[in-house]
DNA sequence: AATCTAGTTTCGCTGGGCGAAACATGCAAT
DNA sequence: ATTGCATGTTTCGCCCAGCGAAACTAGATT
């Protein structure tokens, strides 16, 4: 969130000059990606874009940063919005039942009501009904978490996840977020989308990567090659130290939705060989079986 | 959503007089409950309340009405907002990645990104980590869906749910919504909250119930009595024909969060006697075990 | 009492958001 | 082609909802 706002109250006699505000011209209206703190740019001068809504949602997102509860001050910090604005938006969200004020700490915390927003997503995804049992079965067999994910900005969100009955660590559940660039799931997803979309995404990833880009680009390219060759890719320790996983694109046969499958876990849970000879092929098979059912 | 808006463009010569607009005085700023289409009232003149945000979120909620995808027209219908407003808000939500336009149907559908909003709720709820295995175990043993839920307006949202490995029907999952007044879970929740809050809620439920209120009130009272007597309540076929369930309040020992547990399924899955002698007591026990862990 | 920190409220301004109406588009029936 | 209907977008000018600087309030700490 940046959108600076408006100058105000230049005020009486010798008030300090309010900081200069720039207004940018909009360029495009592509899918739009942006990560973290950066909406601005594209939308600054878009007459159709409603900033109040965007800001409010950005507040809800702020809680994904690992903090269970946040005060107005912290929210102002995170979102870069002025305090009064935060105050009013949190007030609104509280009235709507999406946030509640923890009397003890004086901070806000998200409520179950927010889950209701996500329900339509989960319930209308046929795959979940269909694939659920396959996921669970595969998870148990290979001892890894098996999940379906879709894109959110520069991350992949777990839409469904099955854990093997044994695994206690690495419980990434529905709604979890993994990086799109360094995870097997993310790369599989990127492989599944159209070329222009992919280029757009990679462009943003490049920007974010900075100096690491050459390395990252090569790694991504290798994953793409793997998928071309045998349908799946393996990522070992790039997304997170000591985590390895397999990814497979999941593309609706009518070209509609694009998702991705993965199977992942701590290194000790699976050798690279197992991933290559057993898990990968199984995932590919799973993907082929459910892809035709994705069409609504 | 009602908040009528502003008159405009009374316009040239003999234009039809734009409809009169009333502006209401605000009354209170209580927790606020409202269901379905009715925010208005309380907030109309609240300087702190941001309507754009509320409207935008209302659009996301509209998809909970069972429709997987909705066009701007339908959304206008449902939310009672004028078309241009809908147009802009859906545009904004699309830009933010929460909605995507299905090219085939020309309608919007919610995306996985929305799940990311709910993740903080799920991840910070310690109970989920702790109770998860108990839930699953109980679910398998009694052959019913066992869930934890919190309130959302006049419904209860499943925060966690475990299905018995056998059950294929009635898969109410995380994010599912059941009525607060006619479900065992809902009534258990109401039993758990403070008296003033409860009265407030019952007031709204009364309004919504209309002529059915006397019957409903008695049924709710009976459930309250059951909970007083033995810790749980049983509801058979009130929430939904052929569904029966047991509910238990789940109150943090520090009085913070209030949730509820339930175990439910189709009638054939459990006799009333089983619910009374086995499932109920087990749920009560579960509630007692995890309640102390609710404090953050 | 003085200083910090955290949040809320005031206040005046103004441009962001608004809806009526006009326009565009798509599809069917005539 | 034309008309009609249904759906969605864009224009346009208005104006008040929302904004942020600054003042204020409330606690906590020194």
From TrEMBL, chains A, B:
Record domain HTH iclR-type: where: 50-112
Keyword Nucleotide-binding attached: no
Region entry Disordered, spans: 1-31
Record InterPro entries: GAF-like_dom_sf, HTH_MetabolicPath_Reg, Tscrpt_reg_IclR_C, Tscrpt_reg_IclR_N, WH-like_DNA-bd_sf, WH_DNA-bd_sf
GO BP: any one term: negative regulation of DNA-templated transcription
Ranges where the IclR-ED domain occurs: 113-296
Entries under SUPFAM superfamilies matching the protein: GAF domain-like (SSF55781), Winged helix' DNA-binding domain (SSF46785)
Keywords: DNA-binding, Transcription, Transcription regulation
Any one GO molecular function term: DNA binding
Protein name, entry field: Transcriptional regulator, IclR family
Organism: Albimonas donghaensis
């Amino acid at each position: 969130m940046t959108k600076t706002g408006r100058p105000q109250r230049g005020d009486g006699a010798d008030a300090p000059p309010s900081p200069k505000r720039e207004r940018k011209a909009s360029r495009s209206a592509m899918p739009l990606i942006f990560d973290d703190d950066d909406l601005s740019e594209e939308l600054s001068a878009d007459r159709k874009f409603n900033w109040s809504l965007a800001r409010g949602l950005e507040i809800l997102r702020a809680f994904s940063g690992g903090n269970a509860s946040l005060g107005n001050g912290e929210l102002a910090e995170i979102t870069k919005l002025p305090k009064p604005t935060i105050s009013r938006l949190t007030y609104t969200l509280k009235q709507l039942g999406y946030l509640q004020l923890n009397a003890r700490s004086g901070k806000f915390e998200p409520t179950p009501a927010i889950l209701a927003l996500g329900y339509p997503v989960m319930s209308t995804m046929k795959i979940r009904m269909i694939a659920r049992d396959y996921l669970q079965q595969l998870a148990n067999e290979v001892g890894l978490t098996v999940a379906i994910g879709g894109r959110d900005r520069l991350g992949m969100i777990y839409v469904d996840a099955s854990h093997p009955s044994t695994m206690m660590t690495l419980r990434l559940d529905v709604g979890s977020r993994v990086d799109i660039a360094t995870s097997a799931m993310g790369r599989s997803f990127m492989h599944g989308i159209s070329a222009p979309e992919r280029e757009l995404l990679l462009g943003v990833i490049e920007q974010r990567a900075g100096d690491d880009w050459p390395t990252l680009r090569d790694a991504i390219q290798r994953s793409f090659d793997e998928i071309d060759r045998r349908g799946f890719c393996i990522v070992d320790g790039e997304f997170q130290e000591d985590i390895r996983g397999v990814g497979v694109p999941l593309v609706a046969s009518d070209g509609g939705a694009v998702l991705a499958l993965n199977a992942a876990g701590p290194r000790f849970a699976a050798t690279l060989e197992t991933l290559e000879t057993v898990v990968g092929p199984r995932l590919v098979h799973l993907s082929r079986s459910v892809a035709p059912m994705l069409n609504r």
